[in-house]
Amino acid sequence: MNFELRGSHDFKVSGKKIVGRPVVYGSLSEDLGGFKEIIQRGAFTDALNTDIRALVEHQPTLLLGRTSSNTVNITEDDEGLLVEIIPPDIQSARDLMVSIERGDIRGMSFGFSVPAGGDTWDYDQSPPLRTVTRAVLHEITITSMPAYQATNVAVAMRSLQLGQFIHHKQRLDLMERI
Hints:
Elements: E1 16-24, E2 36-39, E3 53-56, E4 59-66, E5 72-76, E6 80-85, H1 91-102, E7 107-113, E8 119-122, E9 129-132, E10 136-143, E11 152-157, H2 162-177
Parallel strand pairs: 2-9, 3-10
Antiparallel strand pairs: 1-6, 1-11, 3-4, 5-6, 7-10, 8-9
């Protein structure tokens, strides 16, 4: 008996990466349960040299990569944090990338802690406003429900440099508004 197997080779992780902006400085969050939040420029500057994980929906079991294995690269510019993720060639990563490419998943988030003195509160606003001035970044995550609507995520070719992607993404966003 002869068997022939066919598989879909239309979507491959190799040659692709996930890029985006999980933190946008100065952008206002959604209501986080009785307060809103802003991350101040430079809040994570001292925290980028640690082992930071890339997750899906903040789930540690859905690990996409980490900085210590060089499968995640996080840089900072004047606008916030930029991330490049080289995803593993596993089904969950392929499914995630399809959802990103379709536009079903568009945002990012982050998990962090704030050391003593790393934030200020303005209770004169309703809801109160927390401004984070210094924080430790533990993870970045791809999510369909970001707390900060200014974040973004996309799939790009690995040969495309992150700066080129951000410029290209800004042009595409502008074209969508016209």
